[in-house]
Amino acid sequence: MKCIIMANGDYGDIRNYRRLLDEADTILCADGGANYAHEMGVLPAHIVGDMDSIRPQVKAYYEEQKVPFKKYPQRKDFTDTQLILELAEELGASEIIFVGSLGKRLDHTLSNLYCGAELALRGRKVWHYSANCSAYLVSRECIVHGKIGDKVSVLALSDKARGVYEQGFEYPLENVILEKWNPYAISNVLKEEKGIVRVQEGLLLVLHYHGKSSL
To answer: Helix 106-115 to helix 80-90 angle, to the nearest 10 degrees?
Structure first.
């Protein structure tokens, strides 16, 4: 099941998300992500969070539409994104796509990227989409579809990532070890319309800078 999680981050032109949202099996909103869902005419399956960011008129509208709310106290040990990931897992999501999860605050962006790590290591497909970048959490293989010349960066999210391969790029890699503290696999370039990134052990973050025309 393909699940989209709408967070309260930077969206840019909301028209860039229409096709992605239309392809989702279910859509969940993390607190203020519901404001963007309302703007896009989306009826989410659930809204989760402490409700400190959702606008009152948006909350009232979705209550009228009988959308289930799962409210948590503001003083809590987990972020809204972590809480909504638990729900996505309970619902049986095999692919989780975040939108509005990048940008605005760096701490929130990093938290959003890291909180999907455990699910990615367990084999779920977890990635983030914005108008100009897709960010994939990769524990096995990632196929990057794009245009020749697109920039792709690869970072180790675990302390070490072993057996890393990059094929279809200007600077290929073969069975290398990437360390979190030595991010040298930055700004690679697609040499073909499809690039393949693999890792044998550990977790990678693959960032594809594609521009808004990728979907």
So the answer is: 20
